[in-house]
Amino acid sequence: MRFGVNYTPRVGWFHSWLDLDLDDVRRDFEQIAGLGLDHVRIFPLWDLIQPNRGLIRPAGLAAVADMVDAAGEAGLDVNVDALQGHLSSFDFLPAWLTTWHERNMFTDPEALAGQESYVRALGEVLRGKPNLLGLTLGNEVNQFAARPHPRPHEIDAPQAQAWLERLLGAAREVTDGIVTHAAYDATWYDERQPFVPQHAAELGDETVVHSWVFNGAAQRHGGLGTGSVRHAEYLVQLAAAWHTDAQRPVWLQEVGVPTTVVDPDDAVSFLEQTVRNAADVPGLSGITWWCSHDVSRSMLDFPPVEYDLGLIDEHGRVKPTGHTFAELARELRDAPAPAPSATGLVLDDSAPYRASCAPGGSFFDAWMHAADRDGRGPQVVLQSRVDDSVLLDERGVARIERPAGGPDASTETVGDDSALLGGAAATLST
User: Fold this and answer.
1) Where is the composition biased (Low complexity) (predicted)?
2) What one-character-per-residue DSSP string does 27-75 give?
3) Is residue 411 domain-shared with residue 319, that is, in the same domain?
4) 261-265 contacts: CB < 8 A, separation 24 or more?
5) 386-416 pLDDT, tens per residue?
6) What pLDDT shows up at residue 405?
7) Number of C-beta neighbours around residue 17 at 10 A
């Protein structure tokens, strides 16, 4: 299992791409490697590297390659995000997609051609790097496709799939390592979202999940409640429900301690419980913590949650969470693979189901009830696949349970549909 961090440069945040100082980067990477972590995920700003649809700056591409090389010097592998249009509540779409040139980034033929050329150029400059872990299309690009984004590039599910297939295909042709795409949790929780679970579970080389408990989980369950410290574990299990290949890995690519909803004094406990619970799910390929370094307080206009997410503070001091994550990485990296939970909790996917899966929804509550009862979370089995005995056997599901209140509720039931409150996915993720 991989253990790493999403790299947030200590000096200048991601604006440091404007005048990249590799000495600063090397110092940051040496600290990260010193914690015993094995990889970083980096975020070149798309609008700086491709400021015009016809201009992909060679110096910008070279800066990305230099950062990958600097990570290699420290013994770190690197995953590179490409279409970096969104980070920590700020959008970085290039000007050729906005205002007077506004066009749908997912469907406009010229916009698609521009994105494809950028992905190919980035893959080419990284080809052959021995420490390249892979390429992700971008950070939570699905947030541009629907509300609550204030100016969504609206599409439907087939259009989302076509966009993914085209750009993932382009990336795979030029990229060494794994090719993935990343979505925030509206994919799993919000019916408005055109990027759907099947896209996450069937396209790309691994299924990627981002776990943030400011989505209603911590507000409802408390910072150290079951619904919070098992949220990442739950998302990993929920994602795996859509796999047709029982061996397909899930990557917990973002997870962090938002101290706006988790008491700062509980941050270490939240981290330890979250990591241990998630690591107990078979098929988890890695945990990439958000994030490496705190955002400096000199940087203005960030939401409060963003300033305290680092494992290392803005002055370069390792925080208690950093020491704890390092200890867990050393302990769990080579631990024996966990056995799968023998229980499969059935999710009715025959009708709109995503609000039920969100914090406050009936399926979410049923899963958490079962986790409390059994000490670990059950697997999730789609109603449409409940008779696929071969797949269930490959997954190690020996016993099927149905949430209470459903039409075929079993005698061994969990949850309570009377508590159905709907989804809570209206807050943009990091």
Assistant:
1) 416-430
2) HHHHHHHHTT--EEEE---HHHH-SBTTB--HHHHHHHHHHHHHHHHTT
3) no
4) 261/213, 261/214, 261/218, 261/219, 261/223, 262/213, 262/218, 262/223, 262/224, 262/228, 263/223, 264/308
5) 999 999 999 999 999 999 855 444 433 323 3
6) 58
7) 22
User: With 50 as the cut, is the pLDDT of residue 115 above it?
Assistant: yes
User: Is there a contact between 8 and 29 (Cβ–Cβ < 8 Å)?
Assistant: no
Mind listing the pLDDT tens digit for each residue in 15-65? 999 999 999 999 999 999 999 999 999 999 999 999 999 999 999 999 999
Question: What is the DSSP pairing of strand 86-87 with strand 90-91?
Answer: antiparallel
pTM for this prediction: 0.93
Tell me the one-letter amino acid at 228. S
Domain termination residue (choose one: 332, 359, 394): 332
In a domain, 338, yes or no: no
Count CB-CB contacts under 10 A for residue 384: 11
Domain carrying residue 373: 343-419
Q: What are the tens digits of pLDDT across the range 57-91?
A: 999 999 999 999 999 999 999 999 999 999 999 99
Same domain flag for 299 and 368? no
Six token digits for residue 300: 């203005």
| CATH code where residue 150 lies | 3.20.20.80
Q: Is residue 389 located within the same domain as residue 311?
A: no
130 and 75 co-located in one domain: yes
Overall domain count for the chain: 2
274 and 400 together in one domain: no
Q: Is 149 found in the same domain as 46?
A: yes
- Beta-sheet strands, E only, within 242-325: 250-255, 284-289
Above 70 in pLDDT, residue 229? Answer: yes
